[in-house]
Amino acid sequence: MALLATTAPLARADDALDAGDLWRHLRHHAIATDEQTSLLAPNRPFFVVAPSIGSKPSTGINGGIAGNIAFVTGDPSSTRLSSISGGLKVSEKGQTLSGMKVAMFLPDDRWFVQGDNRFSLTSLDTYGLGDTTSSSDADNLKYNQLRLYETLYRTVAPGLFVGIGLDVNQHSNVRPGTGTEATFDQSAYALYTQQHGFDLLHQTSSGTTASLMFDTRDNAINAQRGWLLSATYRTFFDGFLGGDSSWQEAYFDIRTFRKLTSDGRRRLAFWVLGDFVTGGSVPYFDLPEISGDAYGRSARGYTEGRYRGDSLVYGEIEFRDTVTRNGLLGYVAFVNTTTISGGTSDTHLFESYAPAAGAGLRVLLNKKSRTNLCVDYGFGKQGSRGLYLAIQEAF
After folding, report:
1. Which of 203, 281, 285, 386 has a CA that sits 20 to 30 A from residue 48's CA?
2. What is the CATH number of the domain that holds 357?
3. Considering the domain boundaries, does residue 2 fall inside one?
4. Which positions ≥6 away from 379 have C-beta within 8 Å?
5. Phi, psi torsion values for 362, nearest 5 degrees
6. How far, in Å, CA of 68 to CA of 391, rounded?
7. Containing domain of residue 118, as a range?
8. Quick check: 38 pLDDT over 60?
9. Within a domain: residue 110?
10. How many Å apart are CA 209 and CA 213, to the nearest integer?
């Protein structure tokens, strides 16, 4: 989901201290006041371009340059904070990753524009369908990915949005990765693709979206309270903008946040999502998968695409707390699980699970937006594990 920041005050407390304040203190510069650092002013965008570093199992350590612009298009009392972010990275696995995400509210929140656009020269370990596959059965594939997901929402009630959109997801130049040339023809990807009549080298899904979203979070970057409920139905068409087949997908995303202390420094976060193929023949890479959410932050403890199938349900609980009274340092502990249907064993939802757990550290980068630097380590079954380094919370 996009970052739906609200117009509610975003500072943690009067004595909150972030990484920028610490840097200014070390340089003996005055710490900026709330008025000086406020982003909630019309026609006063806040723009940042900086080196970026991250990590997750599917890419390893990655680095490059990233930029973000935050702005308000209308009266701050009735218009939420908008953001456009993007970047270009290279990874230790030889991938080139680029993308741009848009979350823009027009004056008085009458309209909301959401975009998820990516272009990558990348690779991924692939497996058979279902959540009972063995970790030793991985086949590494290289491919190019182009994704253009654009949705326009209209406000119909406070916090309630209805949207329509256009989706294009293309995977091209699919080929065996290092060490898998001899087994490519017998890989799970190749067998599935041939069985469903798709081209081994190039697959495209193109279609339209209908969405409903309800958002009462006080801050989407790092919420202390509120709900997010989102439901999306995608219909893809054979021959439309190069689409290779007709199929349908239903997707829902539910998140809620509960304070355990009055100041919100200690709280619980809950996340449930579902992704279901409701009809048609689906290209392999478009099937529901672990870490298939917009920011790839679900199922910490597993690599992206470790489990894939016809339907997926995911749940997570995370405990969040701060170590220092000024909010500069914090930590989280989380547990999650995924259940997937599909595969040669004809696995059904809720028959088997892929659980994971882990913990992480937090450094407050910006007290106005509550943006954290997040360093997490997660463990899953069959020895799966991974380091995750990112900006902003997983959900």
Report:
1. 386
2. 2.40.160.50
3. no
4. 301, 356, 357, 358, 385
5. -130, 140
6. 12
7. 19-391
8. no
9. yes
10. 13
